[in-house]
Specification:
alpha/beta, Rossmann fold, UDP-N-acetylmuramoyl-L-alanine:D-glutamate ligase, Protein-Tyrosine Phosphatase, Chain A, 3 domains, 10-stranded mixed beta sheet, 7-stranded mixed beta sheet, 17 helices, disordered C terminus
Length: 534
């Protein structure tokens, strides 16, 4: 086997997509584009490190998939592929299938290049931002479907109601999540771009906050000349981006909260304003005032004086104010694509969530722990953790049963933990009790001496904190902290998601009177802060 590494194809527009091989086909992003390829009649093969639900679903659709990576996997369908697709963030260049592709002269492209090719000819709605991409993309799809459209879509998570993360629709709209973590969003040419928020993340890749901010500026430069930017004006960096786009002549549809104070240049871009919310047990009722241009009011891609206001009144089933803002972005994106705002809002009201976004796993129906419930969320950045825990507390307060919020958090990446440990500690302190697992390193090499203690050491004294390095013991540790009507929430981008059903099982065991031995080291933050300082 040659020692050369696979090189990316520099001109993906020339690639033949009739026979495609995807390395890491079971991943959230890769499985989605595989679904679309199959729906379009392509021959698809792939490989992944394990069998999984997405892998089995793709097999049932006609894909040939091997478990494990081997050079011979390229010929699973009996012939070599015309192109090999990968994500170098997850698959090393030394992968034998990528090396074999190089030896055979087969082009190797990124998943983002493939998605860009699949979106050619469509009105492209690309959702970007540090947080909320998957939820906003999913809401935009659901809103458009509610308004009678049949968009194609590719999402980084599975829609709960549809049971899929991708679809080849009959309409002329394609909605997709634009991931910035490795700058792959720069592969797209959006007709309509949504930016939910911008704050530093993925600094292991970008090196500095300035480089991270720049990738969004570069993304905005790619918006078509007659395109639209939908931007949250509550976020400073996104508002700055919106102003820059407006100066360039791009139509900007800004959204945000009525209580915000904004500079005149930013305030002029506000098209949708959240004027009120009411937290209910079933979700959040939302009132949004939307400035709608009359036909004669759209001149040179700018809204002018002639306009009318409409008020949208709808329910967002998924808890949290961040979800309210995401829903407004979804409505505006759909409106920019030509759909009716009222029908879009009705569509959003039917949105039943996305897998691993405040996903409900079950509750204890009776007994001493009656009403205790378990949720799971992908939150892995301090801002996301804070938003999700705030939503959890709002839900507990709305139920008015005296429940507590109990968090089980697994930090993701050593670099992110080291960079944001104080912010994580502050966010997790919103919980009444917290079990912190050790760091899920993913693609990173462990850092000697760096553990989740760096977070627990910095947490507030008022929070019951347990550091639990033994993941197998975590369900019992969490269950030992729970009481009736408590909301238990597992959070993180790693393996913590498998604990949600196990925690629910342990809660039911405790409720049935079976002894469950608690684990974990109960920490007194004020007593261990000195250790962090040494």
């Amino acid at each position: 086997m040659s020692e050369q590494h696979a090189e990316l194809n520099t001109d993906p527009d020339t690639v033949d997509l009739s026979r495609v091989h995807l390395v890491g086909i079971g991943g959230a992003g890769m499985s989605g584009v595989a679904r679309i390829l199959l729906a379009r009649g392509a021959k698809v093969s792939g490989s992944d490190v394990k069998d999984s639900r997405p892998v089995r679903a793709l097999r049932s659709m006609g894909a040939e998939i091997a478990v494990g990576h081997k050079a011979e996997n390229l010929q699973l369908t009996g012939s070599l592929p015309t192109v090999v697709v990968t994500s170098f963030a997850a698959i090393p260049k030394e992968n034998p299938e990528l090396q074999a592709a190089s030896e055979h002269g087969i082009p190797v492209i990124r998943r983002s290049d493939l998605l860009a090719e699949l979106m050619e000819g469509y009105t492209q709605v690309l959702i970007a931002g540090t947080h909320g991409k998957t939820s906003t993309t999913s809401m935009a799809v659901t809103a458009l479907q509610g308004a009678g459209a049949d968009p194609s879509f590719a999402i980084g998570g599975q829609l709960n109601r549809a049971g899929t993360n991708a679809h080849h629709g009959s309409g002329d709209i394609f909605v997709a999540e634009a991931d910035e973590s490795d700058a792959s969003l720069l592969r797209y040419r959006p007709s309509i771009a949504v930016v939910t928020n911008i704050e530093p993340d993925h600094l292991d890749y970008f090196g500095s906050p300035e480089n991270y901010f720049q990738v969004f500026q570069d993304f905005a430069e790619l918006i078509e000349n007659d395109g639209v930017l939908v931007a949250c004006l509550d976020d400073k960096h996104t508002a700055d981006l919106a102003v820059a786009c407006a100066r360039r002549g791009i139509t900007v549809l800004g959204y945000g909260t009525s209580s915000q104070t904004r500079a005149p240049e930013v305030a002029d871009l506000l098209v949708a304003e959240v004027t009120g919310t009411q937290v209910l047990a079933a979700g959040t009722r939302v009132w949004v005032q939307v400035r709608v241009p009359d036909a004669v009011a759209l001149q040179n891609n700018q809204f002018v004086a002639a306009q009318r206001d409409i008020v949208l009144d709808y329910l967002v089933q998924t808890p949290g104010y961040h979800m309210v803002l995401n829903s407004v972005a979804a409505v505006l994106a759909g409106a920019a694509a030509g759909a009716d705002p009222q029908k879009l809002a009705e569509g959003v009201a039917s949105f039943a969530g996305v897998r691993r976004r405040f996903e409900y796993h079950g509750d204890v129906s009776s007994g001493a722990l009656h009403g205790a419930k378990v949720y799971d969320d992908y939150a892995h950045h301090p801002t996301e953790v804070m938003a999700v825990l705030t939503a959890a507390r709002e839900q507990v307060l709305a139920e008015a049963n005296g429940g507590k919020v109990i968090a089980c958090f697994q930090p993701h990446l050593y670099s992110r933990t080291k960079e944001f440990y104080q912010e994580f500690a502050q966010a997790l302190s919103l919980a009444d009790a917290c079990v912190v697992l050790d760091i899920f390193g993913a693609r990173e090499t462990p850092v000697e001496g760096l553990t989740s203690r760096i977070i627990t050491n910095a947490m507030e004294e008022s929070v019951t904190v347990r550091y639990e390095p033994d993941m197998a013991a975590a369900p019992a540790t969490v269950a030992s902290l729970a009481g009736p009507h408590d909301l238990v929430l597992t959070m993180g981008a790693g393996s913590v998601t498998v604990l949600a059903p196990e925690i629910l099982q342990h809660l039911r065991l405790v409720n049935a009177g079976e002894a469950v031995e608690p684990h974990g080291e109960e920490l007194k933050p004020h007593a261990v802060e000195d250790q962090a300082g040494r």
